[in-house]
Amino acid sequence: MVLTAESRIKEGKEDTNVGPPNIPRHPEVLARWDPAKARRPDIAEAPVFYPSLEEFEDTVAYIEKIRPSAEPYGICRIVPPLKWSPPFRLREKSIWEGIKFPTRVQDVELLQNRGPVKQKQKKKPKARKRKRSSSSKRQPSSVSSPEEEKVFGFNSGPDFTLEEFEKYARRFKESYFEMKEGNAGDTKWSPSIEEIEGEYWRIVEHAAADDDVEVYYGADLENKVLGSGFERGETSGWDLNNLRRLSGSLLSFERGDISGVLVPWVYHVEDHHLYSINYNHFGEPKVWYGVPGTHATSLEKAMRKHLPDLFEETPDLLHGLVTQFSPSILKEEGVPVYRAVQRAGEYVLTFPRAYHAGFNSGFNCAEAVNVATVDWLSHGQNAVELLSDENKKTSVSHDKLLLGAAYEAVRSLSGDGGESGKSLEWRCFCDKNMTLTKAVETRLRMEEARIDALGGGFRLMKMEKYFDSNCERECAKCSYDLHLTASGCSKCSPGEYACTKHANELCSCEGNDRFVLLRHTVDELRSLVRALEGEPEHLKTWASMVREVFSEAQKREPRGFDLNLEYQVDGEFDDTSETRHDEAEDLKTWAKEPRDFDLNLEYQVDDEFDNTSDARHDAYMLNFAASVETINLGFLVFRDLWCNKHAIYPKGFKSRVKFYNVKDPMRMSYYISEVVDVGLLGPFFTVTLEEAHQDESFSAGSAQACWEMVLQKVNEEIKKRQERNIHTLESINGLQMFGFLSPSIIQAIEALDPNHRLVEYWNLRKQGGSLEV
């Protein structure tokens, strides 16, 4: 999830004055508005939709409903019902005044009119854009030095708090547009959106040689910096944190951490031609321009025609997000462009492969994510083929999303998915010639043709189930994702793989050394198509296969707590009450030994646990060792607060553990624990329930406080339900639940600091002190 807090700040060349202490930079604004030379484009408006409260309840269904009407425009505006007014958490004083975020500086006059940086530079391969553990700012690969970045119009700016940023933006606007007080009691005059728009395009299209017009903006900010603007615990699908997990959202099948981004406002399409949805939390309006996906090629041709030198130097200029282009010129070239003005509290939806651009009329805070619905699959397939042709990296595994959707459809159609309504939803995309069925069939034919073209020089082998579970597998020649098929050679290139398009380019070995790995055989995929079409025998076969897939996935999950077991021990269980009592006592003793850390959970003894005593109705405390899975170890920050005598807290650390579900304590669920950076305040700790349709998050200044919030919520739910078979839980160890008391995790984190620079932590270790809390 990415927060975008953008402010368009134009200023004169003089930028050396020091302003008030709470504003990082306070330059004298020399430039002035020139209304006589305004260049506002004359283009049609994008459609606006006003969902009812009932329509607003299902986000994905509403997007699907308006798609036929809105997609021909490329973008549309969605105005929520009046009752939709989510709190904006970034207004909290500790965030608004206390957390700084980095900005970038963009020279607006260089967005369209600039010369090449250097001639015919040999391109370097792009860094991988897959954003599963962290988000990278999207920059052109040819921009490497500060001098070159300056030519493109992008430089690093100062850090701001939101309070400082708002004051800075307001001061600029007042100076630049010469906003003066009216008569006594009158409201201060402010330029209209149309006047600001005319001035913006004057600068972009016809700025004088001595004009120096800069933009400060804070975009591409991960939620680790400021966090989402939506309040934690909001369950609506229009809370962008929940959108990925909704039924019908294909990104729910990609377990990794994929950031959804809407970055600098030059013409671009989203990665993989995904949808994007942007919410303007508060502030000044955002002005958008969109080109329908059906005219994407026409836009690219027009830009190449008018900017030939730049495209000769940087062929993938449009991927670099460094070039703005006048809607008026596009209109002259026959490319349809549509405009939308997004005010606070409104959404803007962009459609697959729709180029979009824009600017902000003042200070605002907006948030955006990508969306993948079933109808996107054909666009996504085209996108990955284009990326392969251009040897560009992928952000998500398209085949994983495709198969995930197919598996879920099979589960629903066969009755394994539970709700009958869900089955009806998936049936709309299945059957013969329907969207999902066609997408799977297209992919089948594509891969079948590529395998046939290889001839008989390759052995066909079954791919291991976990081939790409713990690492990314991609073609060594074109970076194509290898979730479905992969080719290799056991003789000359073990561990290196290629897609079936480039299998013959990997090596020229002969004999039985070369192979193709298949997640599903061609015959199995043909059967999957028949299953999606509803043929009973094939559906039955695939329902069984999918059950096995889900069963295997569950087996690979880390062990956690089982609400229905008193404790877990290896070996056979002795059925006598004395042995049970002894084992329980032994477990208590074992759990208290050094380096095995306690998590105290109270439970109600089962009636059959001890048939010879009155213990059957007593509540006991047992000590469990939490099973924590490390997702991301993170990296060390050598500043105050990033360690203490108990633990080291790496920035970006992320772990996964099982605990009682805060919504239903009779079930166990997985939680994601994470350490994020909040600037001067040091590390911030978050815990999020990892479960579809339940977006429960807890944040605090310590791991202990974070998990105590979880525990409190669990206990509240237990009391509310008045469950007889479970008592409330007395205590929890936050460090343990994060994994900071796990010996293997401690060892891995300590290895990040071989020189013992985190003195507070290491001093205690050298003294032989205990890390128990």
UniProtKB/TrEMBL annotation:
<feature type="compositionally biased region" description="Basic and acidic residues">
    <location>
        <begin position="7"/>
        <end position="16"/>
    </location>
</feature>
<feature type="domain" description="JmjC">
    <location>
        <begin position="235"/>
        <end position="388"/>
    </location>
</feature>
<dbReference type="InterPro" id="IPR003888">
    <property type="entry name" value="FYrich_N"/>
</dbReference>
<feature type="domain" description="JmjN">
    <location>
        <begin position="46"/>
        <end position="87"/>
    </location>
</feature>
<dbReference type="Pfam" id="PF02928">
    <property type="entry name" value="zf-C5HC2"/>
</dbReference>
<feature type="compositionally biased region" description="Basic residues">
    <location>
        <begin position="117"/>
        <end position="135"/>
    </location>
</feature>
<dbReference type="GO" id="GO:0032453">
    <property type="term" value="F:histone H3K4 demethylase activity"/>
</dbReference>
<dbReference type="GO" id="GO:0016491">
    <property type="term" value="F:oxidoreductase activity"/>
</dbReference>
<dbReference type="InterPro" id="IPR003889">
    <property type="entry name" value="FYrich_C"/>
</dbReference>
<dbReference type="InterPro" id="IPR003349">
    <property type="entry name" value="JmjN"/>
</dbReference>
<dbReference type="Pfam" id="PF05965">
    <property type="entry name" value="FYRC"/>
</dbReference>
<dbReference type="Pfam" id="PF02375">
    <property type="entry name" value="JmjN"/>
</dbReference>
<dbReference type="GO" id="GO:0005634">
    <property type="term" value="C:nucleus"/>
</dbReference>
<dbReference type="InterPro" id="IPR003347">
    <property type="entry name" value="JmjC_dom"/>
</dbReference>
<dbReference type="Pfam" id="PF05964">
    <property type="entry name" value="FYRN"/>
</dbReference>
<feature type="compositionally biased region" description="Low complexity">
    <location>
        <begin position="136"/>
        <end position="145"/>
    </location>
</feature>
<dbReference type="GO" id="GO:0006355">
    <property type="term" value="P:regulation of DNA-templated transcription"/>
</dbReference>
<feature type="region of interest" description="Disordered">
    <location>
        <begin position="110"/>
        <end position="150"/>
    </location>
</feature>
<dbReference type="GO" id="GO:0048731">
    <property type="term" value="P:system development"/>
</dbReference>
<feature type="region of interest" description="Disordered">
    <location>
        <begin position="1"/>
        <end position="26"/>
    </location>
</feature>
<keyword id="KW-0560">Oxidoreductase</keyword>
<dbReference type="Pfam" id="PF02373">
    <property type="entry name" value="JmjC"/>
</dbReference>
<protein>
    <recommendedName>
        <fullName>JmjC domain-containing protein</fullName>
    </recommendedName>
</protein>
<keyword id="KW-0408">Iron</keyword>
<dbReference type="InterPro" id="IPR004198">
    <property type="entry name" value="Znf_C5HC2"/>
</dbReference>
<keyword id="KW-0539">Nucleus</keyword>
